[in-house]
Amino acid sequence: MTLSTTLRRSSLRPAAAVLAAAGLAFTLAACGSADAENAAAEPAGDAAETGGPLDLADVCPSTVVLQQDWQPQAEHGSMYNLVGPDYTIDADAKSVTGSLVVDGTDTGVDVEVRPGGPSVNFQPVPALMYLDTDIMLGAVTTDVAIVSAADQPVVAVASQLTSSPQIIMWDPETHDGATTIEEAAAAGDPLVTSGEVIPALLESQGIITQSQIDTSYEGTPQRFVSDPAILQQGFATAEPYIYENEIAQWGRPVGFQLLSEVGFDVYPQALTAREATITEEADCLAKLVPIMQRSQLDYLEDPTATNELIVELVEAYATGWTYSTEVADFSVQQQLALDIVRDDEASGVFGQLDPDRMAQVVTDFGEILLEAGTIADADIDPTSLYTNEFIDTSISMGE
C-alpha cells in the first residue's frame, strides 16, 4: 500500500476532533433505495421464542437504529455483529440494514447501523440523536456526553470498549527506546494531536509542557514519517499495525502507551440514548441492552463474518476511508490483549458503568473542557450521564 492511500485511513476520531466539528451543517441521510444487496439471501435465523428474552417484536421499533461515531471498523463490532445475513447496504445513505440476529436467532425486528464521521458531516452523535429521534442508541464517549449535557442530554446504558484504545505513539529509535509517554516526551519534542483535551490532560500531569502542544494533526502519517522526532496520537487497535505493515515508507514498529494508563479514563463509544428514550423505550432497552452486552463478547470470540461485513461496508460507502481485514483482525487481538475490552472492575459485570469512575471523569474532564471554553458550566451531576438499570448482571467475560 502506498503512503498516499494510507493517508485516508488514519482518522481524526478523538472526541475533541468531533466536538470541534459540531458547528458544521448537517443533512439527515435520505432514505435512498438500496443499491447493494446481499446476494446470498440467506434466512435470517430461527425465530425467537415468543415473549422470550430475544423476542423484540412487541417491545422495540420494527427497525432498531444504531448510530456509530466513525466509519466502520472493528471497534464497532458489537453493532455490526447483530446484522443478519439478509442485510442490504444503502451506499447513498451510508447504512446497512438486516434482521437483528443474535447467535442465529431472529429477534423479529430489523437493525440499521449508520456510520459517523464524514458520512454525517462530522456531527457529534448526541446532535444526530436529537435531529433524528429514530436513533435508539448511539456511540458516545464520556467527554462528548459532558459537552452535550446542557443542550442535548444523553445517558449511557452500557460500555462496550471498557477503556480507550487511544494512544500516544513515537519512533522508538529516535526516542532512545522509550516505553512511556513521559519518557518519549522528556526531550521536549512536539506532541501532535487533533484537539486540546489530550494535551491538556498530559500537561496537567506534568508529562508535557505547554510549548510541546501542537494541535495540527490531520489524521495522516505524512508528518510522522517525515519527522520521527514528534509524538502523535493514534489508536492501539490500528496504527501500530498500519505503520509497520501498510506504510512502506515507515515499515517498522512504533512505540506507544495507552492514554487510559495516564488518566484518559473516559468510557469510549459507550452505548447511549437520549434522556427521553430511556423512559419511552424502557421495555425495549430492557431486552436490547443485554443483547448488546452479549454481542460484543460474541463478536470478539468469533469476529470473522462481522469483520468481512465491516470491510464490505467500507468499500461500498467509498468515502475515502480504507480498512483491511488484517487491520480488523489486529484490532480484535489488541482489544483482548490490552484489556481494552474487559469486565467492569468494581462489579465484575461486562458492560456495567462504574459510578466512581464516572464521577472522576466528570471532575477531571469537566475542568479541562471548562478551561478550554467548550462548556460554560462544569457543575454536572455524574449520575445524569449513565444508568445501569438495563444491565444483565449475569453477563461477564468469564461466564
UniProtKB/TrEMBL annotation:
Top-level taxon of origin: Bacteria
UniProt key word Transmembrane helix: no
Key words of the record: Signal
Keyword Signal (UniProt): yes
Signal peptide span: 1-36
Alphabetical list of Gene3D superfamilies matching this protein: Periplasmic binding protein-like II (3.40.190.10)
Swiss-Prot/TrEMBL GO biological process terms: thiamine biosynthetic process
Protein name as annotated: Nitrate ABC transporter substrate-binding protein
